[in-house]
Design a protein that fits this description.
Blueprint: H1 2-21, E1 23-42, E2 49-64, E3 72-86, E4 93-110, E5 115-132, E6 140-160, E7 163-180, H2 188-193, E8 201-204, E9 209-221, E10 226-240, E11 243-261, E12 274-276
Parallel strand pairs: 1-12
Antiparallel strand pairs: 1-2, 1-11, 2-3, 3-4, 4-5, 5-6, 6-7, 7-8, 7-9, 9-10, 10-11
């Protein structure tokens, strides 16, 4: 009887070993709020460049994927901005609102225990509009596009005295997709009211659309929370249907970071698995 009990004990212990060595992948999530300066030129609305201030909200999550033996991470990023700008004479106003979404994978190249380099591809969806209060017939220019983007990232963990920091640089550059643009002098009434849909959807690439998003950030952990400070530079240049658009912005942001784990039914937290972060 004692031998049978010992046999069951060792069998049970053996079955638990894979679960003990199994990794749990945490999700790094941050919400940032910022303010900055923007510059807008849209020849559909005006030949003049408008400048002013913008506010921005960014939510971002990074988590590991089970594929490629933990070398793939998934990024989900939503970026919303509002701006108010004036012309050089300060007698006309333009407002803008943009919503951008990126989702995709990065392949990770660990250089050492402190430095990670990542490269991958993201899908992107961008929707927004610029509204000129001075225009009567054509007061709005819509900006809608979708496609795929190249992305690169470097994450570096370091200490200053005894305070740990995590620095990150990332760039996102769309390489191909589709974009909406009316023709020169074509009103939105002609498009949606009269059904003149010719030549309003274009294949987009670097020959007619160049977008670059650059993000620098620093994470500063404290006892009970982590702060992320960031600087983001956005560039948007398009040349479609004899219409030119140039949008530039510089934004400084700050927010809180959380790192959490989703544990499914078969994974027991009491087994103390090894945890791998997609960010740190």
């Amino acid at each position: 009887m004692r031998k049978i009990i010992y046999s069951f004990f060792f069998l049970f212990h053996y079955l638990l070993l894979p679960a003990q060595e199994e990794k749990l992948f945490s999700t790094n999530r941050a919400t940032l709020y910022g303010i900055g300066a923007t510059s807008m030129l849209d020849t559909y609305l005006s030949p003049l460049r408008y400048t002013g201030m913008e506010i921005r909200i960014v939510t971002e999550s990074n988590r590991m994927s089970k594929y490629k033996e933990g070398r793939l991470s998934i990024q989900n990023r939503v970026d919303f901005s509002l701006s108010s700008t004036k012309n050089p004479a300060d007698n006309a106003t333009e407002y803008s609102a943009f919503l951008n979404w990126n989702w995709g994978y990065h392949y990770r190249f660990p250089v050492n225990k402190n430095l990670k380099l990542l490269a991958g591809g993201l899908t992107y969806v961008s929707a927004g509009a610029i509204y000129n209060l001075r225009n009567g017939n054509n007061p709005v220019a819509a900006k809608i596009g979708t496609g795929v983007a190249a992305s690169g990232m470097g994450i570096y963990n370091f200490n200053i005295k005894e305070q740990p920091f995590t620095g990150r640089f990332q760039f996102i550059v769309p390489v191909g997709g589709a974009i909406f643009s009316p023709g020169y002098g074509q009103s939105y009434y002609e498009i949606f009211g009269l059904g003149n849909y010719d030549n309003i959807i274009h294949f987009s690439s670097w020959h007619n659309l160049f977008i670059c998003k650059s993000i620098f950030s620093f994470d500063i952990p404290f006892n009970r929370f982590t702060i992320r400070t960031a600087y983001q530079y956005d560039m948007y240049i398009s040349n479609l249907n004899h219409l030119k658009t140039e949008l530039y912005s510089h934004t400084f942001m700050i927010g809180l970071v959380s790192e959490f784990i989703k544990i499914k039914g078969k994974k027991q937290p009491g087994l103390a698995p090894m945890i791998q972060s997609a960010y740190y």
